[in-house]
Amino acid sequence: ENLRARFAVGGADPWERRVDGLLCAHIDSKLYEDKAFLGADDAASACAAIVVMAKFLAKKKPAQAVDLELVLFDGEEALEENITPQDGLYGSRHYANFWRARDDKPKWGILLDMVGHKDLSIRLPSDTPEDLKNLVFAAAKDEGADAYFGMAATPIIDDHVPLNFAGIPTVDLIGDFTRRGWWHTVGDNLNIISPESLDISIRVTLRMIDMRLGK
Asked: How far apart are CA 206 and CA 210, in angstroms?
């Protein structure tokens, strides 16, 4: 089941207002019957980053917090080995369908996935919306972190895809899992997590929100 959260102010119902943007991750990890898979980077690192950012925004930048919805998608991982048009992205597809025909949908989204590993390497899908791609690289440059961000050679199937199809332009900040031998193995544990990598991912994301909301 997806988890959704909004910042409540002054007793008003936060679900009665329109939000400008989404901050997202997936909360599930790959299910294996024959091994104990922890998923420290895929997907706990992104969830942890969002919790940290939520606390920061609520305390330091409440004017930004009220303009965001936080979403942790369930069922991103496929039941079989790989995500296909029929298997995987269950939570984000359901969520995107909720917004598809609505006029009050959020204007943009940021998706985090695998953002805490050592030797951080974030690759944006090749079909990332141009304005969001530029936003990422501008924010990374401002934070002195542009060396950690680049473009993938191809599109990537992740939870941003249903959102983009539903009319919510969304960028996927995803770790380069293609060169990570621990991806979807028991090696995805706390030993591969770096506080510095999490800090970089959080700072760049917060800078993106600053640049988008300007509050």
From this structure: 6
Phi, psi of 124 (to 5 degrees): -80, 140
Instruction: Classify the phi-psi angles of 144: left when phi > 0, otherwise alpha if psi is within -120 to 50, otherwise beta.
Output: left
The two three-digit tokens of residue 48, written as one number: 């942890």
How far apart, in Å, are the Cα atoms of 93 and each of 17, 30, 99, 105, 210?
23, 18, 10, 15, 28
Q: Which residue has the tokens 């950690």?
A: 148
What CATH number should be reported for the domain holding residue 37?
3.40.630.10
Give the dihedral sign, CA 155/43/54/90: positive
Domains in the chain: how many in total?
1
pTM of the model: 0.96
Give the residue numbers spanning the domain of 41: 3-213
Kindly report the average pLDDT of the chain as a whole number: 95
* CA pseudo-torsion sign 177, 148, 48, 61: negative
CA angle 187, 191, 194 (to 5 degrees): 120
Tally Cβ neighbours within 10 Å of residue 151: 13
Write out pLDDT tens, residues 163-193.
999 999 999 999 998 877 888 899 999 999 9
**pLDDT tens, residue by residue, 31-80:** 888 887 889 999 999 999 999 999 999 999 999 999 999 999 999 999 88
